[in-house]
Amino acid sequence: MDPISAATHFDPYDFYYARLRARGGLTYDSRLGLWVASSAEAVAAVLDHPACRVRPAHEAVPRAIAGGPAGELFARLMRMNDGQRHACPRAAIEPGLQALAGVDLRACLAQWHPALEAPSCAADLHRWQFRLPVALVAGLLGVAAEQREALALRTSEFVACFSPLSDPAQLQAAQSAAQYLNGQMQALVAAEEHSPLLSGILRLRGELCPADLCANLVGLLGQTHDACAGLIGNSLVALLADPALCQRLRQAPGQLGAWLIQRQRLDPPVQNTRRFVAEPCTVHGVELQAGDTLLVLLAAANHDPALAAVTGSDPAHQGFSFGSGVHRCPGRGLALNIVQTLLQALLQSPGLNQLKLERHYLPSVNGRIALFSDRPQVSA
Ligand code: HEM
Fold it and tell me: Are 197 and 96 in contact, with CB atoms under 8 Å apart?
């Protein structure tokens, strides 16, 4: 195991991440050629430091997608920029997302198109993990009911452009999906009527140019895709292993929110993120040089016994699963709302605990996304 492969290991927490933290919060891994931040204090220091940027100075867009529609879009995302190109879209989008933390999404699911059925196999769960969260966000942006899941499918193709593990065919599909999704967002913006979320964003758009606006709307779908799939999958791993817990949460659904807050800290879907040092600086007592790369182990920091001392006792913080500092997730409240709503519906569906499933993790350098497959029938 190394700090990158730990993301998809069956249990990186008690032994491996704890051992990394014990070496010091911020240490150099000469095999990977990276600085690794693993303690809560070091992770907070890196994410708060203005010299630690989200992209390397010499490569604003990954070479593998530069020059195509996915690269064009990538270059405009708030997630992939610092300075004005970050702050401007964020100011327009964050308030609208925050307002959705408490909105009741159950009515939306009740009238779902095509109708939702109780999952009877792994492929059904796949739909709940990968299609429904993105489709819900698409719905909030104003996408018509019958187009939402198709749009979620194209988002699955698009997010391949974020992964260094994608092959040329996946990157090609990501390029065409980027073009498609961008066109869909342009059409939403150009429409005469807008959803409440999109109206709010347009009201606050200020100097945001149309291309940056549409790219960042696509960005919301992309950010939702893997992260929500991971939180649903990782929560299901815990739920399916404990029928008594399922029963308790079925009978007292009001406890699900507090349980999920614990779960996202203990088994976070985004295990790490990266930062790139833009100028010489000292972070957590360590001197760093321009060009250094930092691997920020959010998941290791979440398990640091010193976590509460660093983040305070604010229950709304509860670890680093949603990042920290200027790039912290603006969709946190909405994401928890989406995942809680979907888990509650799954818990109520008959037969969930009878599903015969195996689990593995989606290959990834930073995400921890439990994937289920049907357990082969053993013939007598
Ligand atoms: C369980 C679900 C989610 C998790 C665990 C998650 C986690 C994160 C993390 C860790 C970051 C910071 C990355 C970094 O600093 O390097 C982030 C950023 C971001 N997230 Fe989320 N996210 C989730 C869902 C969502 C949703 C539903 C949306 C929007 C609909 C969203 C929108 C964003 C955006 C736009 C950013 C970039 C913010 C910036 O750069 O200022 N996320 N998310």
Answer: yes
State in Å: Cα 329 to ligand 1 middle: 4
The structure tokens listed for 60 are 């604003």
Mean pLDDT of 283-294: 97
Binding-site residues, ligand 1, Cβ < 6 A: 78-79, 86, 90, 97, 137, 219-220, 223-224, 227-228, 231, 269-270, 273, 321-323, 327, 329-331, 334-335, 339
- Domains present along the chain, CATH in parentheses: 5-374 (1.10.630.10)
- Condensed to tens digits (0 to 9), the pLDDT of residues 153-174 reads 999 999 999 999 999 999 999 9
Task: Give pTM, 2 decimals.
Answer: 0.96
Q: Single out the residue of 235, 273, 265, 239 nearest to residue 367, CA to CA.
A: 273
φ, ψ of residue 222 in degrees (nearest 5): -65, -45
**CA distance linking residue 359 with residue 291, whole number of Å:** 38
CA distance 306 to 296: 17
Whose tokens are 């614990």? That residue is: 262
pLDDT at 36: 98
SS3 of residue 305 by DSSP: coil
pLDDT in tens, 215-259: 999 999 999 999 999 999 999 999 999 999 999 999 999 999 999
Query: Each residue of 2-48: pLDDT tens digit?
Result: 999 999 999 999 999 999 999 999 999 999 999 999 999 999 999 99
The pair of three-digit structure tokens given for residue 217, joined into one six-digit string: 């709307």
Q: Is the bond preceding 114 in cis, omega lying within 30 degrees of 0?
A: yes
List Cβ neighbours of 283 (8 Å cut-off, separation of 6 or more).
Answer: 26, 42, 45, 46, 49, 51, 52
CA–centroid distance for 146 within its chain? 25
